[in-house]
Design a protein that fits this description.
By secondary structure, this protein is mostly beta strands. The chain has one domain: 2,3-Dihydroxybiphenyl 1,2-Dioxygenase, domain 1. The chain is 12% helix and 41% strand. It is built from three helices and twelve strands. The strands form two sheets. Strands 2-3-4-1-5-8-7-6 form an eight-stranded mixed β-sheet. The chain has a four-stranded mixed β-sheet with strand order 10-9-11-12. The two termini are 27 Å apart. The mean pLDDT is 96.
């Protein structure tokens, strides 16, 4: 079984991504950290049982030995939702069923946090990034449990893709979260609907 873990917004710079989220939602993001393996850094926002991540290439990181996750080597343009991540408690059962190109699990560290996550060799998850990365925190609680409560919560995550049937087949009987909606559309897209202290807000 899978559970929704977090949602990622990519940005050309971390500052641009944070400003995008804070302006849209009216709440501050919390500190994150650096990911030495991929040369990236992030900031986080708690959404109840999950969290929102803004992630960007760290300009101080220098070169890295592999393609960056979430296709960040090729990212350009304004900050936007690009990926979602599901927690697995049983990688041995879930990985063989994942969409082709999801990639193997690699061990990642940020500060005192260590986890495993699927990363394709080319950095781009299947279905133009609409297929979820799978993450295994092991015995470590998700960062969502460490984040300050800003009065925000996820109402809905909508994912569209021309091959949405492939994503739906993978998620069937594995992810039972009613907040996650998969629909057909000619263009891949993400949209989240969030409860905030100022009412319902949207991010794309």
């Amino acid at each position: 079984m899978l559970t929704l873990d977090h949602i990622a917004i990519a940005a050309e710079t971390l500052e641009e991504g944070v400003e995008h989220v804070e302006t849209a939602l009216g709440v501050p993001m919390a500190a994150g950290g650096k990911h030495p393996l991929f040369g990236t850094h992030n900031r986080l926002l708690g959404l109840g049982d999950i969290y929102l991540e803004v992630i960007a290439v760290d300009p101080l990181a220098g070169s890295v030995p592999r393609c960056r996750w979430f296709d960040l080597d090729r990212f350009c343009g304004p900050p936007r939702l690009t990926n979602w991540i599901c927690k697995t408690n049983n990688p041995a059962a879930d990985l063989p069923c994942a969409l082709a190109g999801t990639g193997p699990m690699v061990e990642v560290q940020r500060g005192d946090l260590r986890w495993q996550i699927t990363v394709p060799k080319n950095g781009c998850l299947p279905l133009d990034g609409c297929a979820p990365a799978l993450i295994d925190w092991g015995d470590i609680p998700s960062p969502a449990t460490r984040l300050p409560d800003q009065g925000c919560g996820l109402r809905r995550l909508k994912i569209t893709h021309p091959e949405s049937d492939k994503l739906g087949q993978f998620l069937q009987d594995r992810l039972t979260d009613p907040r996650v909606i998969v629909a057909h559309a000619e263009q891949p897209s993400f949209e989240i609907e969030i409860d905030t202290p100022w009412g319902i807000k949207w991010l794309r």
